[in-house]
């Protein structure tokens, strides 16, 4: 007799792959018994069952590496708890390099591993050949060995999690299709299935490659698409060592692992294809896709060269299965921004087995606590905009993520698909002057400017790319003459209404009750005293304010503000991002350039720092605010799109005789790091309190209207706990800093780089770094080094930036 569904559950989980089972297991183990998981077919029947089962702990970020490290711990323990063997073999892994840049990348990954206490060390070619005797060592320069990596059986691991979930009180039902997530007044209320309706407080979308389609039904963007992914399994190979480490050759686009006396080898494709563009067949269950030899021949040839025994060994299994890839290579994990109680865990880019246990635990912890318990901002569903969740965009962009899986993970690498979508009014004028464009949230933004005769295209390096000197020259202009920068793509949200001031006083830490025509830099905190965002607020009228956000956080900041508007408040939010083009003019000669084209008094007395005025440039009405992200004297000039090119031309003509130079994002990043200006998502997030990053001074706990998180801010400041954001400069002028390099104090790891750049004015690589210390004062003592590609480089670490911002 078929058991009927319950009428209510505290949590309904949709999807019986490794992620759904992990969420159910961790909720139930923590004591949440009223949990039901619904699977449309059979557990693991989507993509989990055909995963290669690689378990590599070192991933691309702090959060994903923490997930994978936890996964190894669980793999070692879950059999004792459940009696189900997950098939874990800790045979280690070796990643090889066939060129110097790849070797630099691998060494940097090994450096990163030290932050987590994961053993990873350089292995010379002869040692690799001895440990992996089937490998052709020609051209191999060395590699990185991680002894604690390995592989697991995807089905057995998932079944172990499912068994553990049941043991702890959760219910798992197969052959139940969720047809609709039910909602009311912006909150989930349950699910409607083919077997009836279940009311629920929380619904979790772990639908794998179905997660996007399921989310679309409720306006929840899940930016992923299924792509074709191949692997092959050989016939048995006599005397094949059973303890072979997993071997990865990124440049060959291939990985190999021993599989019951055979070799399984899979591909990171050079040319990937989106699958099921018209929808996934209803009947899909443990299905595979047609194997098209031409799709993999290029990589197959490289594989057979790297492991020559493949040339004389038969292939038992030619497999092509769908895997989900996201538009930006990041997970989607967290609560939907516009639908309370709707959580998502999906789009993990073929890392489900190694990341699934940890990701499921992180989401379970979030659900139980009501907030993320570690920094998961990179995965936030609120990072995407509506157009990025549409199938046409995802079908173009997501296959590139698969292609890039084994490609070089260059700092600042730009995508090539779905480009040119959003262009500011200065796109064409700047392109004619050599702009080389980077992309952020679909916006085309100058990264650097190519002088005449230089190719206008990005190249990449962990050291000095071909455009390095050009970006240095842009920094020089900003520090010594004058720079002009396109800021048009920054978010601009108008907050208006009779209660706008009271509202902003409540959500902002700084005092927003300033005269009309003033600009305030402020934080927005959560109830735990963590930093949700940093923005500028310009008062345009008694009841009218403009909140400016960074490019990638515009939607997130708008969601945060919208969530805090009380039902009885007269507060209206309006996105004005595209209403104004914006040019920043900054540098010692910025005042001279503006004075040549307008009749407003630009003196400090008449136009002070953090003030706003309206005037004309040429024939165009504009308004400008006196501040600059470069740290130099500067103005941000707001122009309606129709006058934008005219203003650009007028400023250019006036500025060139004074040394004006167009400046892109590469130089701007270095300029802001040198001056100590922070970037949310790198230098701070919702886990850090203002005192940790040196921004306590813009938090005003004595305002008449207490700000959100005020009590927590005061408490955390009094506790004085770190880690603390500091500023670092290398003594050696040669190495570059990018992100995540370990920081040593007296030889021990005490922190890592949050942001890195090469500062022209300092003649060295600089950055911001988080340092674990008993208190801020103790940071100044001790001898510091930064590890770069396995070498410890002497460095200065201090609490203040290396160059004081000018106003």
Identify the overall geometry: globular
How many H/I helices? Answer: 17
Secondary structure class reads alpha+beta
Gap from first CA to last CA = 76 Å
**Unreliable stretches covering 5 or more consecutive residues:** none
Q: Can you tell me the CATH architecture of the domain at 8-85 and 153-225 and 328-383?
A: 3-Layer(bba) Sandwich
Largest sheet: 8 strands, mixed
Count the strands? 37
Domain FAD dependent oxidoreductase: 11-366
Domain FAD dependent oxidoreductase central: 370-423
Domain GCVT N-terminal: 427-703
Protein name: 4-methylaminobutanoate oxidase (Formaldehyde-forming)
Give the helices and strands, then pairings.
Elements: E1 8-14, H1 18-29, E2 35-39, E3 54-55, H2 62-82, E4 93-97, H3 100-113, E5 121-123, H4 125-131, E6 142-146, E7 150-151, H5 154-167, E8 171-174, E9 178-184, E10 187-193, E11 196-205, H6 211-216, E12 224-234, E13 246-249, E14 254-259, E15 262-267, H7 297-306, E16 315-326, E17 332-335, E18 342-346, H8 352-369, H9 391-404, H10 427-431, E19 435-440, E20 443-449, H11 468-480, E21 482-486, E22 491-496, H12 500-507, E23 519-525, E24 531-541, E25 544-549, H13 554-563, E26 572-575, E27 581-586, H14 590-595, E28 612-617, E29 620-625, E30 634-639, H15 644-655, E31 660-662, H16 665-675, H17 710-719, E32 724-730, E33 742-745, E34 748-759, E35 764-771, E36 784-788, E37 791-798
Parallel strand pairs: 1-2, 1-11, 2-8, 4-13, 11-18, 21-31
Antiparallel strand pairs: 3-7, 4-6, 5-6, 9-10, 10-11, 12-15, 12-16, 13-14, 14-15, 17-18, 19-20, 21-27, 22-25, 22-26, 23-24, 24-25, 27-30, 28-29, 29-30, 32-35, 32-37, 33-34, 33-36, 34-35, 36-37
Helix pairs in contact: 1-5, 1-8, 2-5, 2-8, 11-16
């Amino acid at each position: 007799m078929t058991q009927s569904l319950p009428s209510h559950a505290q949590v309904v989980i949709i999807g019986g792959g490794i992620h759904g089972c992990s969420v159910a297991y961790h909720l139930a183990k923590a004591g949440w018994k009223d949990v039901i998981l619904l699977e449309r077919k059979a557990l693991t029947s989507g993509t989990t069952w055909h995963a290669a089962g690689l378990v590599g702990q070192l991933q691309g970020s702090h959060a994903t590496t923490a997930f994978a490290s936890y996964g190894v711990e669980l793999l070692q323990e879950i059999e004792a708890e459940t009696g189900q063997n997950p098939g874990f073999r800790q045979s280690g892994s070796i990643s090889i390099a066939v060129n110097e840049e790849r070797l630099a990348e691998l060494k940097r990954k090994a450096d990163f591993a030290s932050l987590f206490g994961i053993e990873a060390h350089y292995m010379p070619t002869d040692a690799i050949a001895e440990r992996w005797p089937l490998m052709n060592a020609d051209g191999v320069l060395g590699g990185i060995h991680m002894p604690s990596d390995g592989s697991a059986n995807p089905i057995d691991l998932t079944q172990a999690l499912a068994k553990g979930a049941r043991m702890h009180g959760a219910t798992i039902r197969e052959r139940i299709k969720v047809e609709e997530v039910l909602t009311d007044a912006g909150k989930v209320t349950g699910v409607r299935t083919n077997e009836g309706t279940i009311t629920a407080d929380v619904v979790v979308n772990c639908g794998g490659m179905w997660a996007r389609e399921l989310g679309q039904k409720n306006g929840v963007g899940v930016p992923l698409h299924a792509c074709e992914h191949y692997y092959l399994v050989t016939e048995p190979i006599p005397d094949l060592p059973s303890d072979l480490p997993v071997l990865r050759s990124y440049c060959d686009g291939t990985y190999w692992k021993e599989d019951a006396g055979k070799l399984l080898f899979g591909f990171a494709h050079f040319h990937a294809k989106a699958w099921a563009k018209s929808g996934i067949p209803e009947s899909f269950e443990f299905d595979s896709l047609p194997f098209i030899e031409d799709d993999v021949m290029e990589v197959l040839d490289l594989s057979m060269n790297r492991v020559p025994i493949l040339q004389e060994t038969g292939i038992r299994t030619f497999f092509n299965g769908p895997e989900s890839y996201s538009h930006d290579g990041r997970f989607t994990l967290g609560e939907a921004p516009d639908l309370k109680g709707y959580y998502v865990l999906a789009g993990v880019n073929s890392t489900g087995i190694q990341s699934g246990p940890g990701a499921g635990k992180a989401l379970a912890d979030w659900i139980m606590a009501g907030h993320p318990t570690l920094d998961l901002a990179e995965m936030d569903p609120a990072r995407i905009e509506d157009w990025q969740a549409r199938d046409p965009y995802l079908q173009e962009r997501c296959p590139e993520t698969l292609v890039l899986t084994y490609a070089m993970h260059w700092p600042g690498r730009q995508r090539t698909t779905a480009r040119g979508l959003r262009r500011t009014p200065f796109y064409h004028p700047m392109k004619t002057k050599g702009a080389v464009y980077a992309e952020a949230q679909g916006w085309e933004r100058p990264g650097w400017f190519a002088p005449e005769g230089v190719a206008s295209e990005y190249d990449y390096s962990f050291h000095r790319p071909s455009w390095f000197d050009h970006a240095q020259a842009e920094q020089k202009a900003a520090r010594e003459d004058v720079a002009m920068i396109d800021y048009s793509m920054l978010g601009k949200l108008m907050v208006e209404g009779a209660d706008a001031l009271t509202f902003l006083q409540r959500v902002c830490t700084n005092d927003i009750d300033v005269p009309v025509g003033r600009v305030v830099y402020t934080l927005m905190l959560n109830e735990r005293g963590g930093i949700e965002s940093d923005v500028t607020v310009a008062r345009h009228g008694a009841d009218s304010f403009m909140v400016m956000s960074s490019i990638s956080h515009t939607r997130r900041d708008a969601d945060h503000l919208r969530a805090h508007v009380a039902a009885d408040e007269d507060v209206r939010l309006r996105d004005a991002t595209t209403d104004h083009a914006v040019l920043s003019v900054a540098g010692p000669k910025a005042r001279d350039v503006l004075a040549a084209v307008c009749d407003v008094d630009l003196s400090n007395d008449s136009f002070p720092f953090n003030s706003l005025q309206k005037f004309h440039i040429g024939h165009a009405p504009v308004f400008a605010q006196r501040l600059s992200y470069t740290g130099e004297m500067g103005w941000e000039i707001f122009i309606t799109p129709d006058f934008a090119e005219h203003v650009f031309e007028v400023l250019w003509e006036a500025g060139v005789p004074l040394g004006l130079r167009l400046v892109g994002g590469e130089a701007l990043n270095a300029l802001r790091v040198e001056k100590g200006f922070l970037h949310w998502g790198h230098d701070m997030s919702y886990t850090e309190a203002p005192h940790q990053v040196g921004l306590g001074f813009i938090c005003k706990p004595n305002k008449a209207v207490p700000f959100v998180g005020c009590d927590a801010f005061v408490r955390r400041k009094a506790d004085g706990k770190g880690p603390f954001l500091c500023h670092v400069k290398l003594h050696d002028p040669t190495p570059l800093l990018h992100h995540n390099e370990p920081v040593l104090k007296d030889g021990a790891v005490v922190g890592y780089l949050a942001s890195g750049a090469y500062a022209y004015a300092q003649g060295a690589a600089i950055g911001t770094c988080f340092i674990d210390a008993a208190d801020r004062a103790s940071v100044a003592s001790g001898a510091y080094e930064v590890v770069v590609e396995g070498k410890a480089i002497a460095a200065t670490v201090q609490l203040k930036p290396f160059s004081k911002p000018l106003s």
